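Homework help board

Subject: predicted structure for assignment chain

Our instructor gave us this sequence and asked us to write out the predicted structure in token form, then describe one feature. I got the tokens but I'm not sure how to describe them. Can anyone check?
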Amino acid sequence: MSINPPQSGFPELVTKRLLLRQIKEADAQLLHQYWTDPAVIEYLTLEPFKDLEETLNMIALLNSLPEFNQGIRWAITRKADNMVIGTCGFHNLKAEHSRTEIGYELGKPFWKQGFMAEALAAVIPYGFKYLNLNRIEAFVNLGNSNSTNILTIMGFSLDGLLREYEFARGQFVDQYCYSLLKKEYCRLSQS
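My token output:
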């Protein structure tokens, strides 16, 4: 894995099979397919997008996160064919507390192939090294076993269940809170 330093523009993260790069407007068609697929968005708290303009607005929002020191989001692309297969990154960055939330999604054709674990294995150390994080949090809707499994694989611990934590799609939703601390990550990466 290699990381281009942040001062060289938008940081690109490279793994064995993936290139994580800035999301482009040209990615909108594929991302719109993923962001409107009922299987992909089942556990997201966003309302399903109705048109491509909403996808373009989301891309603009995600790309503005670094400018306002609120986080960073990468397009996950396969190096073999440069196809965008999903996104991942940080949001709700609280620099004064050295913590952020991690979020991610993958197009359904790319599930269960190890792509998300590979992407997160690049994103997590970036957060601890370049964003000076002490804590990375993940909030997962009750029932989203794919997400809880990947977080467990990545070394996150379950902090607890937040009852009716968010209002999504007309109802209150319970969410699990997971976290990974820098000292835990350092211990895991040395073993």
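Reply (TA_rk): Your tokens look well-formed. For the description, you could write something like this. The CA atoms of residues 89 and 123 lie 7 Å apart. That's the kind of observation they're looking for.
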